[in-house]
Amino acid sequence: MKPKATAREIAYRILLNFDRNPQRPEELIEQAMKSAQLKSKERKFLRNLVSGCIRHRSYLDWVGSRLYTGKYARLKPQVHVIIRLALYEILYLDFIPPHASVNEWVGFTKRNLHLSLSKIVNGMLRNYLRTKPDLKAEKHFKYIETQLAVKYSFPEWLITRWLEAWGASETEKLCAAFNRLPDFDLRINERKISVDEFEAMLTKEMISFERSAVFSRFVKVADIQKIAELDWFAKGFCSVQDESALMPVKLLELKTGESLLDACAAPGGKLTAVLEQGTPRLFSVAVDSDGNRLSTVIENTNRLGLERPVMVMADARRLPLRSKFDKILLDVPCSGLGTIRKHPDIKWRRSIDEIMGFQKLQLEILEEAAGLLRAGGRMVYSTCSIDPAENEYVINMFLEKHKDFQIAAPGKELAAFTDENNMVRTSPHRHKMDGSFAVALEHKHASN
Hints:
By secondary structure, the protein is of the alpha/beta class. The chain has helices at residues 7-20, 25-35, 40-55, 57-67, 77-92, 98-112, 115-131, 144-151, 156-166, 168-178, 195-204, 224-229, 246-252, 269-276, 291-304, 346-349, 352-370, 392-401, 428-431, and strands spanning 184-188, 209-211, 218-221, 238-240, 259-262, 283-288, 310-313, 325-331, 373-383, 405-408, 424-426, 436-443. It starts with 6 loop residues before the first helix and ends in a 5-residue tail after the last strand. The mean pLDDT is 94.
């Protein structure tokens, strides 16, 4: 009988696939775990290896190149992946003795590749343990963009873009924050359980948590794996959602009896946060172009015990609606660059062409939705991106064309996140949240 695949073996296969065809590693991990019978501790280790190697990829490659006497780029891609995994364990995982990591990965190379390659891996890793070379990228590269790109493992084009927007100090703080292991935020569903009761359950299960300093319905936990193994999600007690996602919900300022259109609703995180607030006599419509994702909205509203919105499958650029709405939520498709803490693969999967493609899409959605807002109504635009091209540039272009709209000032609750132009921003190095952007646009009342 063939022995069961270990977390290390699965991580190796996932990372090799990611190099060949960058896609969401979460999907690769989920697929692998369906066939591999891993214990909870092994599943956590697998996720750690995959996300860690992707998070620190270019730095690990640079360290590897300094341990090899020949041209590192000419080594087989399989060896690059093995060296990354081994160096990640040695440099970042204190609970594994370095010599144990070396033995594991040398043995893996011998079993799965070739004896000659195992000797190369062994020589490189033992060279590191023996010499402990100077691994500070800033001492080896002349230009700041290359230093930061290697030190924090980001594509150089993205570092250059951020340097132009915010300067060296802000960019380095941002990169450092993106590379820290993320906490996970839980939004407590007070329709089913009180905050005090939920915190008591966390304490009973010995799950350490931290109360949100901003929103009373949120707690931060470091270990989401243990939460997932309980039945709390199925019972509708909570949802995983970053605190930053509540900013656009707050900007809506919903009132009794109003109508709401969520034009990019799936998978329903912000919409369910709206519905949990329990605004009396709220009429809501959820639109998404993907039927499967729209089904997820239904599943989430059912799980949380919420009133189901009217569901419409449609492209947000061509909305098949006639009625106008008091409030419209546009959580538009975006690059997701603000979520790199939780999804480090994004920095390797995005390009400047994609960012500009998102900008075009975002403007088209704004333009379409604007025609469905009542005079005096409010439309909230939001992204989980930090790139100005998807945020203030989009808003400024829209306002230049639509003189009948203006930016509305957020309430006091969001003052700490609001800039001088009344745009709401969050950032991991400033707020310990994902990077995000939101703005409330009000349709001016028709003249009398």
